[in-house]
Amino acid sequence: MNKASEYQLQIEDIHLSFGGLKALSGVSTGVKKGEIFSIIGPNGAGKTCLLNCINSFYQPEKGRIIFEGRDITELKAHKIAGLGIARTFQNVELFAHMTVLDNIKLGGHVHLKSGVLSGGLYFGKARREEMAFRRHIEEKIIDLLEIEHIRKQAVHTLPYGLQKRVEIARALAMRPRILLLDEPCAGMNLEETEDIARFVLDIKEEWDVTIILIEHDMGVVMDISDRVCVLDFGLKIAEGDPADIRHNEHVIKAYLGEEDKTYSRLDA
């Protein structure tokens, strides 16, 4: 890919298939540091498969993924998390009977440095590290996502919209340099969707975190994205700023195949 130094994350000629089904066919793109980079496309386009390749849930058959100059294609998922790539999922993946605070704390343990003995006995360095980490969660993450009032509640008692916030909070506890958000607004009403969009912008601006976003709500995508990549049947069919994507004929055809309806959807 040309101008490699321009990108914090490079995706080069990624191929992925399941049996005879081609999920991704030669997808290449690059994500710049500090931007909101959205990946859109119809159902089955390969969006989540691409995220799964980035954080190594899937191993591509061909191609490379380069993060800050390092080839991470063959690293295990926990190693990629340790490098600073965090993830949320389409469906809420939390420990339902644990509290909000405990769920969030689990996200950050990948970075705790204290040894087994001090950790097990909880004294000295381990205690100081744990207390500093807890302050970071309470002063930064919980405050940012406006979930102070539910911090001691069990996750299973919360409505879906708040559970999605907790999942984002857990990902932020990993202190990511890149945050992968897989349909964070799915299943939400208008007010909840507007809140999530606001939180995503706050994360970008206040934390200087690069965000890769999969989202079906075109209003959110067009409002907050710096650039948009469009997939269809595992192929990249367009990439550019939201204004260009909104009026791209290939994108219009991929969504509904009828220009008047599709423009209405993309401009929603």
Keywords:
single chain; 268 residues; alpha/beta; Rossmann fold; 2 domains; six-stranded mixed sheet; 10 strands; 40% helix
Can you characterise this structure?
The chain is of the alpha/beta class and 268 residues long. It has two domains: 177 residues, P-loop containing nucleotide triphosphate hydrolases (Rossmann fold, 3-Layer(aba) Sandwich); 78 residues, no CATH class. It has eleven helices and ten strands. Strands 6-7-8-3-9-10 form a six-stranded mixed β-sheet, with helices on both faces. Helix 10 packs across helix 11.
Task: Write a concise synopsis of the structure shown.
This protein has helices at 47-54, 77-83, 100-108, 116-121, 125-144, 160-172, 190-207, 218-224, 242-246, 249-255, 259-266; strands spanning 9-18, 21-31, 36-40, 62-67, 70-71, 85-87, 178-182, 210-214, 227-232, 235-240.
CATH fold label of the largest domain? Rossmann fold
Net shape? globular
Distance between the termini: 33 Å
Report the count of strand segments: 10
Q: What is the share of helical residues?
A: 40-55%
Reading the helices and strands in chain order gives EEEHEEHEHHHHEHEHEEHHH
Major sheet characteristics: 6 strands, mixed
Report mean pLDDT, rounded to a whole number.
87
Name the beta content range: 15-25%
Instruction: Detail the poorly predicted runs.
Output: 114-119, 259-265
